[in-house]
Structure prediction request, 319 residues.
Amino acid sequence: MGGDDAPEALVAGAVASVRAGQPVLLIGDQARLRPLIPRGVDIAILHTDDAVDMEDAAVSVRRRPDSSLRLALQEVAAGRACAAVSCGHTGAALVGAVLDLGVLPGVERPAVATVLPRSDGGQLVLADAGANVDCRPEQLANFALLGAALAHTLGVEAPRVGLLANGSEPGKGNMQVRATLPLLQALPLDVVGNVEPPDAFRGVCDVLVCDGFAGNIMLKSVEGAAETVLSLLKEELKGHRSAQIGAWLLQRAVKGLRGKVAWESIGGGLLLGVDGVVVIGHGRSNAEAVSAAISLAARSAEGDLVGGLRARLGQDPTR
Prediction:
């Protein structure tokens, strides 16, 4: 029931996932959801009248155990669902996940991590991507462990960790960054130091650590840049007859590029540090993005993401 285009986009994404073979349980107002499901598509609905709005305070979910968000998390906690996907209030999802799922040992505060493509063909884990806008250096150090654990789960044997800064020199950054770097360097991680965004996307690090304020702005800047580049490319290819012939020849490559950089294809971010798989989708998610978020949730559950995080966090000798 959350998101700019809810519930229509959410149901459409769920329908696409079910048709692809992934079972989905919808939670929300049955009177609004049922008419949106096409005939012949089998999707169960858990009814509730309560839904968290974007204007609501995040902590309001403490008093709303029957909200659609809390019920989704309770399904995961009870083992009746392998993961929860929400495209609504990120802060409320964080609070609710801590309440209903709890946090992994050694985690002070969960973080949202998203995986972005790099120009060298690798993947960049960005943490935090928006859950915690104000962070202490100790919390950023915790995000480094969570991000490295995710990168390791994705197949990176020894993830390289960078700290988002406005320069690569050790003295760069604000007070928060300068206080965080020594804490990262004390961890059992391969810390490359301060990293600027262009270097991160070129492959200098596998994990980029920052607070949720900077991370969310960076993520939305990347999304905006990708949309702009794709739009300009489309207009250029439509401009001349010779360009249109080139567009026909390049259509497969352009489609592949869009699949790598468009925000809809990423799906969402993983809420790392809670004892269950939770995917936070984009607030303006369309059906494609919702289906991608569901796929991300399913892959994370099948790959035992939480078990991998727990094992990796247990290797930290500083606790």
